[in-house]
Write a structure and sequence with these properties.
This protein is an alpha+beta fold. It has 24 helices and eight strands.
């Protein structure tokens, strides 16, 4: 898994280091290695952005400041990424000192091949130019990627060679684990509650009075397999209870076996196929060979990188102040004692003279989180830290909820809170896979949540508009309401619903042009009026023809 993550990260590390700001220094035996093997802020940012995008595609949105039980904060993720980038840099270092560098001719040839594939149609060329600005810029990116990929192949061949001797040695060393992972058994069973029932069915099947499949359908209490003749599919070791596993390993192929007692009842079993792994040749001839090779490469790589780091005394030092602070903070949270010590230190720095001094966003976040962890939320400094982080930082994530809990009547706070609710819905609806997953998992409950949240946003922001607020904030609130209205228009296409929401949207737009006139808003107003007139005309048509 570690190697897989490294390979993913490698695709993002094609950066020019001229004038780079370094975030992490790599050392060997306590001495800094050449700067070309250090980690820049931009490299961390690239890997971070790729990881965040992947998480967002799965519906996971990271908080900018606060860790949660399941996910790190954005800064937490950056510190988690560092060791993987360090390993990638050490691969580069190993390649350099071992002269495992692809030739310019090899890089150019592979780059040309990939360019031919990507530029096979005018449409693709147009898209590439739109994204990268020019084909030369795109070729440069491809060439960097190819160079890294070829270098990775050379390193892999060096540390985890794919030859018979290496694979045979790996097989013998991990034979038990490999057998457990790759041996498969295909079997059927009938499960009943009483031993006498099982014995009676066994006699009837052996006499030909009833087939195994018929008996499974009529008598098996395993509803997931009964209708399919008791078919269990392909089973690997450790997948079933011990008594059943022992039986399917001992049963003769194709013969009725049992009864076998387990915690579930009594089983009658027919083993149809057993793919045993006793030699490397068995693995090579099995459907699991590619998985075996991947396991060999991953395990061998992981052992090599650990040994390489230990033998050469490689280490790293974080240079970026923000990352360094978070790293120290994460360590301090491990125990109540160290958390208290760290809390006193940062509290003294922020509020030492009784007033709030200028602190970093992460210092405020750490103070807030430690206050909650240690039970200091009654302190006025806790509220001050929340207000300062809300004012200075991003208006998203848990800080918005914390600020809303403190001051829900504040129009700016309310606007940020309802905007955060809307963004959560928008992110779900923009990701069709995630939307379908939510609908499949929660059904009507999710639908109700969506409608209720849209209604809550409408109600809450309408109340904000009734207050004395600046024109700028009024425009911001109206834009949020218009986005919320766009979402509601997607949910129900009945004429009455659409008419109601269009009238609502018309009101928002008419209010918007009073504080922020725009041609686009006026054009949409005219379009909505026209659509509403059409809806009215269609509603009157049946009555006129009767």
């Amino acid at each position: 898994m570690k190697k897989f993550l490294l390979i993913l990260l490698a695709a993002f590390f094609s950066l020019t280091l001229i004038g780079a700001e370094y975030a992490v220094r790599i050392t060997k035996g306590g001495e800094a290695v050449s700067k070309e093997f250090w980690i820049t802020r931009e490299e961390i940012e690239q890997a971070f952005n790729a990881t965040v995008a992947n998480a967002a595609s799965q519906g996971i949105i990271l908080d900018p400041y606060f860790d949660s039980y399941f996910t790190p904060s954005e800064l937490g993720l950056k510190t988690m990424i560092i060791p993987y980038i360090v390993d990638e840099k050490l691969i580069d270092y190993f390649a350099w000192e071992s002269n495992l560098i692809p030739s310019e001719e090899e890089i150019d040839a592979e780059t040309d091949s990939m360019m031919e594939m990507y530029t096979s149609s005018p449409d693709m060329v147009e898209q590439i130019e739109a994204i990268y600005g020019s084909m030369d810029a795109f070729r440069s990116e491809i060439r960097n990627y190819v160079s890294d990929a070829l270098k990775a192949e050379l390193v892999q061949e060096s540390v985890a060679p794919l030859n018979d001797d290496a694979l045979a040695a790996y097989f013998e060393e991990f034979k038990t684990e490999i057998k457990n992972q790759f041996e498969t058994i295909r079997a059927r069973h009938i499960l009943v509650t009483e031993e006498a029932t099982a014995t009676g069915l066994m006699d009837r099947i052996n006499s030909g009075e009833i087939t195994f499949a018929e008996a499974a359908l009529q008598f098996s209490i395993d509803s997931s397999t009964a209708a399919n003749g008791g078919e269990l599919g392909s089973i690997v070791r450790g997948q079933t209870v011990p008594e059943f596993e022992e039986a399917i390993l001992a049963a003769p192929i194709g013969e009725l076996y049992g009864p076998v007692q387990s915690e579930f009842g009594y089983h009658l079993i027919i083993v149809e196929e057993r793919n045993e792994i006793n030699s490397l040749e068995d693995v090579v001839n099995s459907a699991s060979y590619n998985d075996f090779v991947s396991g060999y490469q991953n395990d061998t790589y992981n052992r090599w990188i650990e040994s390489y780091i230990e033998e050469n005394k490689f280490d790293y030092e974080i240079l970026d102040n923000e990352l360094l602070f978070y790293n120290e903070y994460a360590k301090a949270k491990a125990t109540e004692e160290t958390a208290n010590e760290f809390f006193v230190e940062i509290a003294s720095g922020i509020f030492g003279d009784g007033t709030s001094s200028e602190a970093s966003l992460m210092e405020y976040a750490a103070f807030i989180e430690l206050s909650e962890m240690l039970g200091f939320t009654d302190s006025p400094d806790y509220e001050t830290a929340i207000r300062n982080l809300f004012e200075a930082g991003e208006k998203r994530g848990m800080i918005v909820q914390k600020m809303y809990d403190l001051d829900s009547e504040n129009p700016e706070v309310a606007a940020a809170y309802y905007n955060a609710l809307l963004e959560e819905l928008e992110n779900t609806f923009m990701n069709q896979d995630l939307l379908q997953q939510q609908l499949s998992s929660y059904g009507q409950s999710f639908v109700d949540y969506v409608f209720n949240t849209i209604g809550e946003i409408e109600s809450g922001l309408t109340s904000v508009l009734e207050k004395e607020i600046s024109d700028g904030l009024r425009a911001d609130v109206l834009y949020i309401l218009i986005r919320n209205n766009s979402l509601s228009l997607e949910l129900d296409y009945s004429p009455d619903w659409r008419k109601e929401k269009l009238n609502q949207r018309l009101g928002y737009l008419e209010a918007l042009i009073q504080v922020e006139p725009s041609e686009a808003a006026q054009t949409e107003i005219e379009s909505i009026i026209s659509e509403l007139e059409q809806i009215e005309a269609e509603a009157e048509t049946p009555a006129a023809t009767e």
